[in-house]
Amino acid sequence: MKLMNRNLISNAALMAALFIGGAGSAAAQDADDPMAFVRGAQSWADNCARCHNMRDSAEFRDDVWEPTVLHMRIRAGLTGQETRDILTFLQKANDPADNKGENK
Amino acid sequence: MAALREDVKSNNLDTLSKLHMAGYANVDAIAGSDRQEDGFTAARFAPIFHFQFSDRVLFEGELEIETNADGETEIATEYATIDLILNDYMALVAGKFLSPIGQFRQNIHPSWINKLPTAPVGFGHGGAAPLSDLGVQLRGGIPLSGSMRANYALFTSNGPTLLVDGHGDEVELEMETEAASSNADGNFVYGGRIGFLPVPALELGLSGALGKVGVAEGHAVSELAAGEPDRDYTVLGADAVYNLDTLQLRGEFIQQTVGSEAGSTIADGEVTGELDFTAWYAQAAYRLPDTKWEGVARIGDLDTPNADGNRSQWSVGVNYLFANNVIIKAAYTVDDYDDNAIDDDERFNVQLAYGF
After folding, report:
1. Which residue in A11, B74, B144, B282 is deepest, having the highest Cβ count within 10 Å?
2. Domain spans of chain B?
3. Cβ B65 vs Cβ B47: under 8 Å
């Protein structure tokens, strides 16, 4: 039984290594997506209040939202796309000027 | 403003690594209980550390720092995990993590999130719901069709230990589900949870795990009772949450089962039968529109092999939200014990909670 458990863990580790090696970052390609803000607003409204009261985008600086949203991705079972969209929404909503395409 | 922006940028805030401290704190008081003197009962500080490297790696750690009844400070690790983002739909989480069984432990227990000052009966330490695991899990989200989504968590861990204390009629049984760095029985527990969201406002969850657990005497899990066989272990959970405007309905059921073992000799052979540890709760919370006031009601029940702890519980509470993350809660709770020889307990709990 112990040997079987060890084999299972080894296989899981191998699969994990393959996933890491094969996955690419999609953050850059989403940065200029004009619909990311809209999708992010919808995902923010759909997901956050399921567990906790909504948090205002102005509570944190843009850079602080990054680990916060990544934490919530793990916690809430969000997809990568939803996470990036929500981050875009929170960061842009944090600075209305950015939302108008000004003063980035 | 432009100069300030330049200052911020020059502080390397766009580097690959980011550190962020979040968390929560709460101060509690109790009154009216027959089992506890009136007074202030908790000053808890639970910092959560996030260390992010690029957009692919995150360390998360939560400490729980609390003043105990003797005035000493207790520190515990709620969770500490290294999270690797494998792709858009999967993350590998390794370390000590909150139990993926059900929802309350992993997502609702922080004081600024929990809508009542106390955990539902059976969902705290010594209850029926698993607390935490040391192991690995894969978790993520899956888009289905339109706004329909699913999320999942699959894990393997050291698993819990059955604690047996006392002999004969005085025997007390407890599922020790706090993650430990020992796996004295050499067995792993395998399980997971799947959440289904037919619409964004509704999440239905099913969770479960199985494996074998060792049996220990007393309260230490690193050394098992000599000659006591390992026993089958299963846990099943179901949870649901529904949000409609400012109304939130939430419920959860969890049952841990330890299989029977005819060869058991611990506690003079009094623990040979199947053992069930069951808890459930249902909760409704309603925030008056355009106000800072919220009302909460919850019912629940705990059923374990320890007859003196089995009880149903109901609570009603009122919350005032100074902000969405700064809440003062006042609740009235009644514990109705199954054993008629044990007096019911009624009490008021007040809690000031701050999530940051």
Report:
1. B282
2. 87-316
3. yes
